[in-house]
Records
---
Amino acid sequence: MSTESSTSKETKNPAVDGSELIEFKDVTKRFGSNVVLDNLCFDVSSGKHVTLIGPSGSGKTTILRLLMTLVKPEEGTIKVAGEYLTHETKNGKLVPASERHSREVRKNIGMVFQQFNLFPNMKVLRNITEAPVHVLGLSKDEAEQRARELLELVGLTEHIDKYPSQLSGGQQQRVAIARALAMRPQVLLLDEVTSALDPELVAGVLDVLRDIAHTTDITMLCVTHEMNFARDISDDVLMFDEGRVIESGSPEKIFSEPEHERTREFLSAVL
Ligand SMILES: Nc1ncnc2c1ncn2[C@@H]1O[C@H](COP(=O)(O)OP(=O)(O)OP(=O)(O)O)[C@@H](O)[C@H]1O
């Protein structure tokens, strides 16, 4: 992974050891006059787990929303697995990609949101098989086989025939994780996935994610306020402030020896 910003101190990570799966190049995102991301550059190598930390409003979720094409950048380009996501630069101009192209590239990405967003009228099994059948074209049997394996991974085999309303929030979130993985994405985006949970349910969900991080080769980009979790799973941590990466590095470096005063302030408030 590497990061840099043309307006901030360049921060390069030496651990660039794989192909870049996610590439942000000079990405600027504005909402009206609010510059939320400011000329942002960073890469995530295949198989790495990268956590975004920083104060509320610093632009972390916007990065995940850009990757999901829920919002589009005003400037700059984003590549996933070597393909431009929404725009490419031609002769110095941003040229939009076709919707079809964006949709294809997006298939590499799965996301788990703060709210679980399960289909309330479908049982657990069908929540997981729906997209693989209708988007990937898997047979019902193949999709169900995949769903059963994933339900075992997230520890919910015995709940396969329940509706979401019959599950706890933590169990629903574990279904949402299984549902995202059922599409076999190369990248898993996690957006504060435990924030909506009662405190006693948080550990179960984080344990499942730790397990996935340690036993699969999926690339993860994670926004979290759970610093111990970030420390456990991350290869790299990016500290955001006002839409820029102000510091990046291994969890040991960021959590034990932060260089930037804003990082120290942020960590002393959350740790
Ligand atoms: N759809 C939108 N329309 C207008 N402003 C938006 C929109 N989405 C985000 N913003 C603004 O962009 C800024 C960054 O928001 P973002 O959610 O990316 O921050 P964040 O770092 O994830 O914060 P938090 O930790 O609180 O979730 C905020 O000022 C927010 O109000």
---
Amino acid sequence: MLPLKIESLAVSFPGLATPVLAIDNLAIAAGSRIALTGGSGSGKSTLINIIAGLERIRTGRVVWGEQNLADLSEGRRDRWRAANIGLVMQDFHLFPGLSALDNILLPARLSRVASADVIKRAHMLLDTVGLKRPEQHVETMSRGEMQRVAIARAILRRPGVIIADEPTASLDLESGAAVGDLLLSVASYAGSTLIIATHDQRLVERLDRRLLLKGGRITGDTDHKEIAA
Ligand SMILES: Nc1ncnc2c1ncn2[C@@H]1O[C@H](COP(=O)(O)OP(=O)(O)OP(=O)(O)O)[C@@H](O)[C@H]1O
């Protein structure tokens, strides 16, 4: 469970007159559940790439707990991410030719932390996400099943933070609701801070706080918990 603090963040790309992301101040409490919303091109994926440590930070501070990501070299950022962030990307980033189980275990194997306990947990997670065939190759799976493999892989190391980019996109209503259930239940079980970029209004309503991005700036910040209280 990690809190996030962003200060004076600006992300620019060559050839663009204004930054695609500009956030002066944002604090996210440890263990909270955040919906990141906004139209196409508003900066959601850019923000996710920054807070997940996938992009280098040139201007500003992005601090998870005590760690300012701007202070880390690329290699140290990769190791920090592997240990602290469970990432579910839009296109899953699964490896074809490998089974569901091997996909879940691959990052842990690359980080040399795939102990017997971790392998046991991978089997348990396959069961939790409702996948009955650990040896099935991922390229033969439906999108909903691939999504569940990606989620199981993201939470294998009990990350303090789970970040998902459009996790219900292109799923039917029922599968989308099931993926929402899964993310919410694993985050609350592990006490992880949960950040989901989504256009899915049903999913937004299930989260505690909604951040709205427009033109790379936060133009709305609504606390559903306060509204409900
Ligand atoms: N590498 C890049 N070079 C130049 N411009 C970029 C780059 N990456 C993103 N952008 C621009 O930054 C803006 C924000 O893009 P981003 O992908 O973060 O939006 P988004 O809110 O995730 O959109 P969508 O919902 O369509 O995925 C867009 O105008 C995009 O064209």
---
Amino acid sequence: MLDIQNLSKTFGPRRVLTDVTLRLVPGEVYGLLGPNGAGKTTTINLLSGLIRPDIGRVLIAGEAASDRTKSYLGIMPQQNLLYQSLTCGENLAFFGKIYGLPSSLRSQRIFTCLKAVNLEDRVDSIVGALSGGMQRRLSLAVAIVHQPKLVVLDEPTTGLDIEARYDVWELIRQLKHQGVTVLLTTHLLDEAERLCDRIGFLKQGHLLAQGSLSELRAYIPAQEVVTIQTTDEAAAMAKAKTYGLTQRRYDGQLAFWLPERLELRELLAKFEGCPIDSIARSPVTLEHIYLEMTSSF
Ligand SMILES: Nc1ncnc2c1ncn2[C@@H]1O[C@H](COP(=O)(O)OP(=O)(O)OP(=O)(O)O)[C@@H](O)[C@H]1O
């Protein structure tokens, strides 16, 4: 559905994307993750035709990006692009028209899309008078009003409260169910973990790795991560070193990778003699994998 081939982009002397290739199949939800400035929005701007690549190309539904392919594509940008002095209904009617939505379907689609983002009672509200979260949801309604085959969501739930976030997640699941392909960027790793079939990690313009969560777990050769609080970290680190455990810090806390699952007593035995205040075990999560990919330990 979306075929991004060898994209490279520079802005002046700064290279922001290098040889990025990714392919999304119909009905797939793909999460593009990476730190601030990694090149996620630039990738989106390239595939929407807002900017042109120096090298590489983008195919949407097998066609080179053109005015025609624009109607296949719905985009929710990071900054809402809404007409503040128009109503919600007028915004949707305007964008629907631009994207070729037949006038016979327009009022039905406006109602369906506003309902999908829980704004059905706001059809006549002026956008400038809506809360930030409501404007974010309207922006999502705009992205889907013309029933695109490919929806690109740039940080769709940033600024939303938890219930609104659940609603957006549910909407993304429905889009997938309808066979719509979704490319999303997010800094919320639990959002990516819950929604995405595959995830790609972008860092300094390079796509470092991509795959399903279970495929990405292979980057951390551990069954569990154990986090330890102790008044003598040096002693815990020394013990862990004797067992060959890989050491990390997550949110400042000392942690080790366990290559195999251990009984609690076996685990405690490894740190015998260390003044342990607490010990917590967790499976390998997307957060661990993300940090491994994007940080330099
Ligand atoms: N029009 C532009 N002119 C010059 N530099 C740009 C332009 N657009 C983006 N950049 C630079 O390209 C790099 C990638 O930016 P981009 O917005 O794609 O990152 P991002 O991964 O989306 O970041 P964030 O998570 O903060 O949204 C940054 O260094 C940014 O300053």
